[in-house]
Design goal:
Elements: E1 18-23, E2 33-34, E3 37-38, H1 39-56, E4 61-64, H2 74-83, E5 88-95, E6 105-109, H3 121-138, E7 144-149, H4 153-156, E8 162-169, H5 173-179, H6 182-202
Parallel strand pairs: 1-4, 1-5, 5-8, 6-7
Antiparallel strand pairs: 2-3, 6-8
Length: about 200
C-alpha cells in the first residue's frame, strides 16, 4: 500500500493575492440600528468570517480595513486598499428602511457616470455579479434583489475591482433573523468568498 499523501485542495488557487475586506461603519458610526442589532457589529462579524475563508480555503491574503470597532473615513478605506496593494475590494453592509416590508440582499457596483473614477468598472461589475450569484444560490431564504449601479464612494473612487454587499435589511424581520444568526453569517461569508474566488480565477 502506498502511504497516504496530503494534497492541497484544488480550490486553493489564490496565489497569495490580496483581497481587501471592508467592514462598514465602526466606532461612533453604528450604521443602521434596529433594537439591539447594529450594522457595524454584523458587518464586522461577517468580515472576520470572510477573511478567514478567503485565507484558509482559497489561499488569498485577506486584509481588513478595520480589525476592531473603530471609525474610518471613506477616503481612509480607499487609501488602505492602495497601501495593502489589494487586488480587489469588497465592502460589507446591511440595509435598512422605514418600510419594514423591504427585504433582500443586493450588490452595488460602479456607475458609468463621471462620479466614478475607478478604472475597473467592468471588472467591478463582474465581481459584484459573481458574489450576487453565490449569495442567491447559498442563501436562498433571503430575496435576491440583484446587482445595482450606484455612486458609492468606496466603490467608485477605488483603484481596484470593487463592490459593496448589502446582506439584507436589518429593519425586516426575516432578514434580521438571518443577519443575527451566526449560522447564516457564516453562509454569507462563504458565499461571498466563493464569488470573489470565481471572479479572481478569471481576472488577471
Amino acid at each position: 500500500m502506498k502511504p497516504a499523501t496530503t494534497t492541497t485542495p484544488t480550490t486553493s488557487t489564490g496565489t497569495g493575492r490580496t483581497i481587501v475586506i471592508d467592514a462598514g461603519h465602526g466606532g461612533n458610526d453604528p450604521g443602521a440600528v434596529y433594537g439591539s442589532s447594529y450594522e457595524k457589529v454584523i458587518a464586522f462579524d461577517i468580515a472576520v468570517r470572510l477573511a478567514s475563508t478567503l485565507s484558509n480555503t482559497y489561499g488569498y491574503h485577506a486584509r481588513m480595513t478595520r480589525t476592531s470597532d473603530t471609525y474610518l473615513t471613506l477616503a481612509q478605506r480607499v487609501e488602505l486598499t492602495k497601501s495593502y496593494k489589494g487586488s480587489a475590494f469588497v465592502s460589507l453592509h446591511t440595509n435598512s428602511s422605514t418600510n419594514t416590508s423591504y427585504h433582500g440582499h443586493e450588490v452595488l457596483v460602479p456607475t458609468g457616470e463621471s462620479y466614478t473614477t475607478n478604472p475597473y468598472i467592468s471588472a467591478s461589475r463582474s465581481l459584484g455579479a459573481a458574489i450576487n450569484r453565490e449569495l442567491g444560490a447559498r442563501v436562498p431564504t433571503i430575496r435576491n434583489r440583484g446587482v445595482k449601479y450606484q455612486n458609492v464612494y468606496v466603490v467608485g473612487k477605488n483603484s481596484v475591482p470593487s463592490t459593496l454587499v448589502e446582506y439584507g435589511f436589518i429593519s425586516n424581520a426575516n432578514d434580521r433573523s438571518h443577519l443575527t444568526s451566526t449560522t447564516y453569517r457564516q453562509r454569507m461569508a462563504e458565499a461571498t468568498a466563493s464569488g470573489i474566488h470565481q471572479f479572481m480565477r478569471s481576472y488577471k
